[in-house]
Specification:
209 residues; six-stranded antiparallel β-sheet; Methane Monooxygenase Hydroxylase, Chain G, domain 1; globular; 2 domains; Archaeosine Trna-guanine Transglycosylase, Chain: A, domain 4
Length: 209
């Protein structure tokens, strides 16, 4: 399905179901939010990655948290659907903000894939290793998007994950990332400990042959 919607390009990746807090300060995006509130509409956040705008996520406004005297706003939003840009216009119709035609992409959220528990186990191991276990909140409704921003993916990797439209494939992507990241962190910690010992008198036991 295609649809014409307002667009708010950002150099971030938003995921379906993600809660995203935005501080709105530019005149064109203050106008965008005002128009969406008046029409009970949504807007899209195309991810600006590698100097391109191709994919993004539609978001709905949940709440205007604060309006400042100069018109700036703090708003709470939630991601809904992933889209691909069909047409992009930097100024849309008679508006200050961008807009265009987007194509909504079918997204498979099958949670039965056997790797789901392995993904959460590895994520828990990472957070435990970082002494941040209290920051990882998982439930029966948690999925790949729940942890995607919390496991050290760079922007391009987050964007690659956005374009994977199958939960099983997303889980495999994350497992691969974590399986490489955790040993690398452990090696870095080991190197750090060795550097600390440099110059110290070492009590070494010779090997027996």
């Amino acid at each position: 399905m295609t649809k014409e919607i307002p667009l708010f390009p950002l150099n971030i990746v938003a995921y379906p179901g993600e809660l995203l807090n935005l501080h709105i300060f530019e005149p064109r995006y203050k106008q965008l939010v005002k128009d969406c509130l008046e029409s009970d509409g949504t807007f899209g956040i195309p991810s600006y990655v590698n100097n391109k705008i191709e994919f993004g996520t539609e978001v709905e406004i949940l709440k205007v948290e604060k309006v400042y005297e100069d018109g700036r706003m703090d708003i709470r939003t939630r991601g809904t659907e992933i889209f691909e840009i069909v047409e992009y216009h930097d100024t849309w119709n008679d508006k200050l903000y961008a807009g265009g035609v987007v194509k909504y992409l079918e997204n498979d959220f099958d949670h039965t894939f056997e790797g789901r528990e392995q993904m959460f186990t590895l994520a828990s191991e990472l957070f435990s290793w970082l002494h941040m276990s209290d920051k990882l909140r998982l439930s029966e409704n948690s999925n790949s998007y729940t942890i995607a921003h919390k496991i050290g993916l760079n922007l391009e990797e987050e964007y690659n994950l956005l374009q994977i439209l199958n939960e099983s494939a997303r889980i495999e992507f994350i497992i691969g990332h974590l399986a490489n990241l955790i040993p690398a962190l452990e090696r870095a910690q080991s190197a750090k400990e060795k550097i600390k010992l440099n110059g110290h008198f070492k009590h070494l036991t010779p090997p027996k042959f």
